[in-house]
Amino acid sequence: MTDAPLSGPALAQTVTRAFDRRRRIAFAIPAAILAYLIYAAISFDIAGLMARARFDNAAILLSDFWSHKTHVTRDNRSGKLTIAIEGEAKGTYPEGRLPAWVSTSGDTTTIDLGQGHIVTYDANGARYVVPGYGTIDIREEGGRPVLTAPEPIPDWISVAENRIGVTTPAGRVTYTRSKVETFRYEPGWELWFFTLDSPLHGRSWAELAALAVSGERLDPARSNLALIASEFWTNRMWRHGDVVWAIFETILMAFLGTITAALVALPLSFLAARNFMPLGPLRFAARRLFDFIRGVDGLIWTIILSRAFGPGPMTGAIAMAITDTGSFGKMFSEALENIDEKQVEGVRSTGANAVQRARFGVMPQIMPVLLAQVLYYLESNTRSATVIGAIVGGGIGLLLTQAIITQKDWEEVAYYMVLIVLMVMLMDTLSGWLRRKLIKGE
Amino acid sequence: MVEIIHGPEADRRPVPATHRDAYFEMLRRRRMYGGILLVIFVALMASGWMLADHRNAGSFRGGLHRVFDFPSEVLSEAWEKRANLPGLFLDHVPALIETLNIAAVATLLGALAAMGLSLLATRGLARWPRAIPVFRRSMDALRAIPEIVIALVLIFILGGGPVPAVIAIALHTGGALGKLFSEVAENADLKPVEGLASVGANWSQRMWLGVIPQVAPNWLSYALLRFEINVRASAILGFVGEGGIGHDLKIAMQWGQGRYDEVVAIFLLLFLAIVAIDRVSDHYRHRLVTGH
Question: What percent of chain A has pLDDT over 90?
Fold first, then answer.
């Protein structure tokens, strides 16, 4: 009765049971994932996080990414006026030089924020004309700022004991007893080409081109082209020269680390391959060495090495070389175990010794695998070099963490992020091109 | 026509000796090119290391004998206080679990995002074939941004804790896995998809029932490999930013002498966790790909 299980109700039962099981699994897996995510949400304290999150910081960050602000500050005690881009010393306008939207006459300073918004500082205090609302008048009485503005006071004007703040889409004015300050926001990254102290600041492209080609020397010691290049390269705000060096250092770290690891791992991987190392214990030792190196992890190697060699790109390169030696050793020895023995036999039959057999029988076979892996690691190490640079203190990773720690140079953070992404994409393209060229022979 | 009938003239006939000469000439040239390339390569490596050495705070020669100073200092102190180790292990297990959770949640979320992105970016399967380049480029961009950049920026907005690290790793994972997933999906058999289309299945049904069962083993295998990578990344992010065992390690290291037993305990815990995860995932990946 071999067909009994296939008859009528029994078959139906089996199929139904199988379907039921499938259906249960189909629901159980998403349910398990969901349960885990809920557990994780509780253990990560998502609710507390949402309460603590500073979304105003996000707004600052996003607006800083693509715009900059200029501070126009008057010291209320001495009456001294300072105009500084991002409020930084290196972005301060020299005495007697004003941006086109600020004008002074005697004690009165007029700031045109655009769209009809005019801020005036005078001996009594400050006035801000907001189109469609009216005039906000702040003057000092009895050592405290007093506000006069059309009632009702809207919520974009904040009034506290010793401080009055007005925030509009055009800018921001803050008045305290010691100073009055106006921020004017402008799109773009400030002083990207030349800083204010450079003789080239504020010149148009055409003017610069004319200067470079002809025109008399601004600096008698060198040609205008050299001056333009060096003023740009040594820009104190953006430090283009240092940034280029940092990018180069990062790529150097990745290159040295990856290639050195491959060179060290190649001979060692012969020790760990079953078909080249007949001695069991030695093979076992080599494999455990690779496992150990990989297990200790790049982070720990980096920490140990930066104690010995100090911060810098070499420390990062050595740390990367050690970590990757473990990974390469494991992968190369696996590739070696999968080679075709016939070619080795052929080379052996001509009387070749072990080194010659490895060179002419083995290497041509594993070269494509090996190159593909080395190039892949070069690519991913360019990314890791940014992180390792932040730990050991070298390359673009260091510049990035320094800029983030200040918590205000977000335009620099954005600049470095763009550069890092470009760098990684460039290395991706380069390694893809090399892979096609070297492995497929196109 | 003459030479065809009478054969090539005697002096134009190939002579074995010139053949050999030509061969050796070619061999010599190849060796010369190989040699030149090797010299350039060696010079590049040597000058690279010299430059890196020059720009480093400490030099290679000066630091070489100190490589083992720090480990031996740490280990000797830990050995003196070895009685503390079991207790310290237990103290840091919660942090280790947090690190693993960060990696697991990030892998999970990243893999889910990668599933959608990869299907949308695969020729023959995409919902909107015109939008394939958009999804591909967005995966490239996600892959290109290092985790640390996103993590540090998010710490500024969200404050400390594990969530910035999760988001940073998940975004990167989405890009990296998306590319691999899409390569697998490209080789999927389209017949089941066509069959489902013929019975009126919509796009998500075609993908869920026609494609996912085919690619699931390879996708899972890649996701497991990514989990291994993410555990390491989450430890490193903890060290640079906040959260998990990396943060504990940083605090213990900053304290320095006197807490080296703690450093050793964290090192060991991290090492054992990484080795164990590597082993388990290796085993399952092998089973998933070979099928037994």
Answer: 9
Could you tell me if residue B165 is inside a domain? yes
d(CA A205, CA A253): 37
The answer to whether A295 faces chain B, any CB pair under 8 Å, is yes
In a domain, B63, yes or no: no
pLDDT of A2 over the 50 cut? no
Helices B212-240 and B244-255 pack at an angle, to 10 degrees, of: 20
Q: What's the pLDDT at B115?
A: 92
Do strands A67-75 and A81-85 pair parallel, antiparallel, or not at all (unpaired)?
A: antiparallel
Answer yes or no: is B250 within a domain.
yes
Residues of A in contact with B267 (CB under 8 A): 296, 300
What angle (nearest 5°) sits at the alpha carbon of residue B27, between those of residues B23 and B30? Answer: 140
> Residues 42-61, chain B: which have Cβ within 8 Å of A?
45, 48-49, 51-53, 55-60
Closest Cβ opposite residue A297 in set B48, B70, B270: B270
Please report the ipTM that was assigned to this predicted complex: 0.78
CB-based contact B96:B271 (threshold 8 Å): no
Count of domains for chain B = 2
pLDDT in tens, B38-60: 999 899 999 988 888 888 877 78
Average pLDDT over residues B220-245: 86
pLDDT at A1: 44
Residues A332 and A266 sit within 8 Å (Cβ to Cβ):
yes
A240-440: CATH topology is: MetI-like fold (1.10.3720)
A105-164 residues touching B, CB cutoff 8 A: none
Question: Does the CB of A253 have a partner CB in chain B at under 8 Å?
Answer: yes
Question: Which of A52, A249, A416 faces B55 most closely, judged by CB atoms?
Answer: A249
Structural domain that includes position B176: 73-290
pLDDT band at B100 (very low <50, low <70, confident <90, very high): very high
Query: Quick one: B245 and B118 in the same domain?
Result: yes
Would you say residue B185 lies in a domain?
yes
Residue ranges of chain A that CATH labels 1.10.3720.10: 240-440
Contact A127, A135 (CB under 8 A): yes
Q: Are residues B234 and B266 in the same domain?
A: yes
Q: Could B239 and A391 be called an inter-chain contact, meaning their C-beta atoms sit closer than 8 Å?
A: yes
Residue B152 CA to its chain's centroid (Å): 21
Q: Which of residues 172-231 of B touch A (CB under 8 A)?
A: none
> Average pLDDT, stretch A243-267?
92
Of A43, A61, A390, the CB nearest to B156: A61
Q: Mark whether B140 and B224 lie in a shared domain.
A: yes
My answer on whether B262 and B192 are in the same domain is: yes
pLDDT above 70 coverage of chain B, percent: 93
